[in-house]
């Protein structure tokens, strides 16, 4: 009977020990000369047979190769993949001592025929704990449909136990799965290649849409070409709990950087000498790792061969790779790709640093953009932009090869965190700007970053347009006054009252917009731009870190968006309403000399002035409330600029 028992424990039950329909192996009913205690002892041992057969079936179901489409899911309902296959390999490995134990038991029984059931029970006792633990792990994997790195999490939880034999066996399986993870990490961290056919890794590839403009010369029509660029992000549901999110983000950063720099740099064309220098620098480098990839391979192999995952050693290895990559990327972007020069160009165009250019552009593009956009609007606007540059002798400068104006129709179903700064029925609302980012600065000026720049451009141009319109009204009023001063006719009292009202209305609006513009340019844009440049330029050689650049630039943009109030619907909407009132006044003053009937002009001016005054009061109340509840110093600074000497509040 002991030989039959050993066969059953090896996964081959027979007539004496039968497998039930539920998969449980038990002593067959009706066996003579078996006491209840012996039956109970045998059933206790046969529990190992039940578990062992379960393990063999699980291994058989999940180790077959995927040969045809549609076979990605095994009969157990689990997605096949490298981690599951490694788990099965590890499971097979830890079952080998069990089979050897049964073989040794058989040898001992053949030597001594007097050995009893207690001897078998004593030799296999440890495997009861192990098999129960392994069964729990597999049940967890099956119930949670664990896939890829999620299997590592199930193993990590099972390894926390007081039985050293069980713990060592779980760690042996985990080590097999870690081999897969370290192979993926090696290709990702050293080459920027994500090898993840079955979508098992805790980093996933997505796509971001970028748009570039192409001009059809036959129809003068700008068309938008959609490009898909690789983007990688953490798949948090696959991240094992023993890998900190900070470390996972570093892994994502290093691999993404290598992917972008070593793949995009080979296929990118450049139009300037400086960019060609960058390309030469990239080819000379051959690898951003600067020849230390052999050292890093050795470090990763040492971690791969370790029996247990040591978090400290893992983080040291990842941080060592990151420091080299971050330093090289800093030098590549700042020193060779002239990041600071590009920041100045972005400031000149997106943030209206070249104010004289946009003053001329407002005059050139005003008649085009006051109406709803058509098919040729984008071409006409771009030509107006180039004419404006020619008038101030800027047309030969490099930035005009990189910047272009676009007309983008609003999408009603597109959600955005930005407040609309223009009416939806004019070309101004659709006006935007494109920047042709040169390699390798696309890692800094990503599409999401350029979208923020674009919204700042729209908002600042909206303020600039209102300020320029009010200045033109002042010029018109001065010319009219000089004409009356030179006239010998005595001015009518009603005309004098109307003129005084117009002057007062224009003065208050001009004061508001001029001080708003000063706040935006001096207190916000120049201040934060200077800090950003100091952050980049004052970096010591030991502190060169590419992530520090991107973080500083992101903080710079977020500060501009916050302090320009374009993210605050309450403040920005009130501000835009005031600018709209100013624009209505300018349109009225521009059209009034052409009107045959001018009886309603004083009344309309009076209404606009009252509306402006009321909106200004509401705006100050909103600012005060925001300053009180949020304690933002920039809100107090704006209030100080607009209400200097209590100009409005008094």
Automatic annotation (TrEMBL):
GO terms for biological process: cytoplasmic microtubule organization; meiotic cell cycle; microtubule nucleation; mitotic cell cycle; spindle assembly. It holds the Pfam family GCP_N_terminal. It comes from the Eukaryota. The keyword Cell wall biogenesis/degradation does not apply. Keywords: Cytoplasm, Cytoskeleton, Microtubule. Residues 2-334 form the Gamma tubulin complex component protein N-terminal domain. Residues 339-648 form the Gamma tubulin complex component C-terminal domain. It is found in: Cytoplasm, Cytoskeleton, Microtubule organizing center. InterPro entries: GCP, GCP_C, GCP_C_sf, GCP_N. GO terms for molecular function: gamma-tubulin binding. GO terms for cellular component: centrosome; gamma-tubulin complex; microtubule; spindle pole. Belongs to the TUBGCP family. This is Gamma-tubulin complex component. It comes from Ciona intestinalis. The lineage of its organism: Eukaryota, Metazoa, Chordata, Tunicata, Ascidiacea.
